[in-house]
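Recall from the previous chapter that SMILES is a line notation for molecules. Here it describes pyridoxal-5'-phosphate.
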Amino acid sequence: MTSKKGFVHMKLEEIKRKNLYRTLKKISLVKGMVIEVDGRRAINFSSNDYLGLSQHPAVLKAAKGKMSQVSQCSSRLLSGSSSDIHALEDKLAEHRNVNSALVYATGYMANIGLLTTLADKDSIIYSDELNHSSIIDGCRLSGASIKVFRHNDISSLRGTIFADRHLMSKRKIIVTEGVFSMNGNIARLYEICKIAKDSNAVTVLDDAHGDFILGHTKEHSGTADLLGVSHLIDVHVSSLSKALGSFGGYVATSHYVRELLINSSKQFIYTSAIPSHLCRAAMAAISVTTQGLRQKRLSKNINYFMEGLKKLGVTTGQFASPIIPIMIGNEVVSTQIARRLLKMGIFIQAIRYPTVRRGRAQLRVSITSEHTIEDLDFAISCLEKVRGKSKFM
Ligand SMILES: Cc1ncc(COP(=O)(O)O)c(C=O)c1O
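With both inputs in hand, we obtain:
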């Protein structure tokens, strides 16, 4: 029998042997796009604050403004359900053009809370193979059968669901991200919604990385808005800690699903409510997003950066989204490159298994509306230099 300590050491050694050991970097300053990482100043290309709203004066003012309590120190069903949360939920329902919304403490909990409530052992969940960990955990905890389809591959989804056509009594749910968090790919929602309609499946869309960024309407309500299929999504999930620069997660859906979540979702019931000042920050951030100016700047920056990478001949994703992957492959090389970039003044993280597949390590570049052309040029020139020294990319 391994000793108590022996187990932990053995696990850590195993992680190290596979070159997957992670350490925390100490962030001592964030000012605009400048970040200090382990004592080194760099331009930040590793944030999900795609519109720079976490530092926007109106958002900061709203968070600090009339703060009388740091936290409600209670769950929603006890004394934590502040009027600020209700106001934010009304706003999010309007943003999504659905009946209602329910705010969770994080997007992670929103996914788990939703999937464990919507699915049970009599359900089948069809899940994209690159879905976020919170979706995977939600699927597993729900007790449903899980069928994973190849990433963004419509024929794989169609084939999988078609093979189950005789399972008429099973409740079917298709779950996908809108903008995929690691490779920036945009889900083929039009086709997914069509398959869902044909097979009477519920559609769940986690659009943490597209929400408030993509879309044709003033609301920028994300990938479904961009692809004109918002009305075909049964349940929207998102995070408030990406484009809104705030904190928390939400589910936007029908009144009845919301009621069921309030009554059944453990991740909603048995945890403290999101603090009110974060809701006020999110509300202020939503007002900024409806002006649309930052999304325009972001789009220009994405195109500029992708064009720069193309000129270098770097292998990257094919979608214009704020998440730009640079394929490396080898885990050790990916962390070496990230370290070299940090020394040069660029903060880009290496992403390794289990976040991406084994042997498919990548750099994950996050572009924001607040990067200047000089920031983007500098990053491209640093990438060119590190590339000169390695055979990868
Ligand atoms: C696709 C996706 N869903 C959910 C989450 C979780 O959101 P949160 O950070 O609010 O917990 C993330 C976070 O990175 C994500 O990328």
